[in-house]
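Trying the structure run again after the queue cleared.
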Amino acid sequence: MSNSGHPKDSGRRRGLMLVLSSPSGAGKTTLSKMLLEEFNDVRLSVSATTRMPRPKEVDGQDYHFRKTDEFKAMIARGEFLEWAFVFDMYYGTPKADTVKRLEAGQDVLFDVDWQGADALHDQMPNDVVSVFVLPPSMKALEERLTNRPGSTPEMVARRMEGAKREIMHWRRYDYVIINEDLNIAYQRLKRILLTERLKRLRQLDLEDHVRGLLGEG
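Done. Tokens:
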């Protein structure tokens, strides 16, 4: 499904960085997929990483695959919006890719934790719109995690502890959605996107339009 059913924005606009966070099992990944399927001008951020490609992964599409020395050089040159060292591998968000998409009027979707959200906001505060997804209850979250294929009691317990740590940072976000009903949660996420697109700072033709109205054009 494309976004052809949505009203066209009048004039040019700068894209936005839609940052989506949630504890594991709260529905962030599902909501992201729904948004990407409906809006063809929303693109998932492509991270750089030093890990080896998995079967069928494509460089530049799934990840930007880089050697460790190359990644470190990119860090030294300040080319990342945020980066982290996780399980002996580097991961980071290249700034140039994101800026190029924003200037082309595309929105970039980020699936990050609260630390990644903070780092992105510090780098580009006028472009970031952050959304935190909460479960309806911890019992519901535990049930979702338990019902995942291959889950074990140990994995569920570890993720529940991680969820509590993530939830503690909910006040850092611009918007918070309680995902009790997936379709209602998605409609709220979509309204956030469409409303944020209309912000004055993102409407690139407004200055010229107002000058014309005032007889200065």
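The longest strand covers residues 80-86. Worth checking whether this holds up in the mutant runs.
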